[in-house]
Amino acid sequence: MTKHITGLHHVTAISGPPQANVDFFTKLLDQRLVKKTVNFDDPGTYHLYYGNRTADPGTILTFFPFVGARPGTPGSGMASAYGYSVGAAVFDDHVAALRAQGATLSDPQERFGQPVVTVTDPDGAAVELIAEPGDHGPAEGGFHSTTLWLDDLGPTQRLMVDHMGYAEAGHEAADGAERLRLKAPGDARGTVVDLYRRDGARRGQQGAGSIHHVAFRARDDADQLDWRDRMIAAGMQVTPVIDRQYFNAIYFREPGGALFEIATDPPGFTRDEPLESLGEALKLPEKYEPIRDRIEAVLPRITA
């Protein structure tokens, strides 16, 4: 096995009303709103993208904010958390600043030798801050990892190790739960995926506060098509390539139930607006421009 995934491209989640979501991620977690567009399948709903200053793959967290969304239910068969890398030199300062601003945080824990604090977002979702060497904040650090909650770790483990190039990097078990750490080679952002299982867990249900899918990086269109062939050969049901304006995407559901995407790095988020003003204007795909007035009339007003 010589080919491997290089890391996470983005994570997409579901939230309730958008303004609380914008305030939490831009003001408390210091993310930049790098793209304000609509759900391409439901243009009456925003699709908001957060990331670092230059909107690099591996820093991008996106949300579908539904005003009347029912709460999601954590459980197996879905991605259950994502973790930002925060420099160990400033980790305690970041945690203290979040507490001072009234954020809901867990007590510090240690996971595979690294300090971890979980922050609860406005919809009750777990946002993990994980200490790594350095002095970077969560925006510049980007993703450290994502966690998949599964009934059986084996089938997902085999897909990711045998066909996606991950290697086992640790195993922890206590009180009826276990966590298997997988890591892709290299030092890109988001090379870690934790597979988590807990005795007696129920299946999760999507809604506000849940993760919709996790996306892995492809270098370009040719690399993505090669991954598509490889996933089909591994028995996955993979979609055709879909144009998402800022990347091309293919989707498949991994054996444990979570939705995976493989997204291309290009063309990127400066395709339709300059870097300096990313996220300031509502950007629409060309097919929706003729109905821009109708779309803007139904979207809630937000400020970042």
TrEMBL record:
Keywords annotated in UniProt: Dioxygenase, Oxidoreductase
Annotated InterPro entries: Extradiol_RC_dioxygenase, Glyas_Bleomycin-R_OHBP_Dase, Glyas_Fos-R_dOase_dom, VOC_core
Q: Which GO terms describe its molecular function?
A: dioxygenase activity
Note the CDD domains from the entry.
PcpA_C_like
Q: Where is the VOC domain?
A: 7-132, 142-265
Protein name (database record):
Ring-cleaving dioxygenase
Organism, by scientific name, is Jannaschia ovalis
